[in-house]
Amino acid sequence: MRVGVGSTNPVKRSATESALGDLPGASVESVAVASGVSEQPVGEPETVRGAENRAHNILDAGDYDLGVGLEGGVAEVDGADGLFLLMWAAVTDGKRTGLGAGPRLRLPDAIATRVRDGEELGPVMDDVLGMDGVAEKQGAAGALTGGIIDRESALEQAVAGAFGPFVTEFYE
């Protein structure tokens, strides 16, 4: 089974490979595709749409059995104060689509303010941490939890959830 991931970010590819585990015959390839949403998706609907768009666009980019799209965004959450980091994954075969979400992490106020003012979370985290490429490493999830979780493990959970309709019969 050929699985395409709609991003060249190595963390997203690795999260997909980890979610697939030892699934016999599965191979994962990464290809840059458009998300069709803003660089910093805001709200659940835009973040989900970005993941779905990436999953469908990867099928158009090559001969894949399944397309995987992952999208990180920020959103206000009903019943909770603050702005939260969130992650969504979509998996599609072109006919049906599975969705899964990762954890939600409250952003510190200073970071949330900058994101609300229009900055993208990745570069803000690079600035706050004084390093480049946080999104390709531990991600905001790793930084904000002191390494208890990292971006790859958070995305892996989202991808694993999105694979549900393709690995069980419960969604038929």
Describe this protein's structure.
- This protein has 172 residues and is of the alpha/beta class.
- The chain has one domain: Maf protein (Alpha-Beta Complex).
- The protein is built from 7 helices and 6 strands; from the N terminus they run βαβαββββααααα.
- It has helices at 10-20, 44-61, 109-116, 121-129, 139-144, 151-162, 164-167; strands spanning 2-5, 27-30, 66-76, 83-92, 97-101, 105-106.
- A hairpin with a 6-residue loop joins strand 3 and strand 4 (83-92).
- The longest helix has 18 residues, at 44-61.
Could you list some keywords that capture this structure?
six-stranded mixed beta sheet; 7 helices; 6 strands; alpha/beta; 21% strand; Maf protein; 172 residues
Q: Under CATH, the topology is which?
A: Maf protein
Please tally the β strands and state the result: 6
Radius of gyration: 16 Å
Helicity range: 25-40%
Secondary structure category: alpha/beta
> Which range does the strand content fall in?
15-25%
- Name of the CATH architecture: Alpha-Beta Complex
Task: Give start-end ranges of low-pLDDT stretches.
Answer: none
Main β-sheet: number of strands, strand sense, barrel status?
Answer: 6 strands, mixed
Overall pLDDT level: 93
Report the order of strands and helices: EHEHEEEEHHHHH
Q: Tell me the overall shape.
A: globular
Compute the separation of the termini in Å: 20 Å
Number of domain modules: 1
Q: Helical stretch count? A: 7
For this structure, what is the CATH class? Alpha Beta
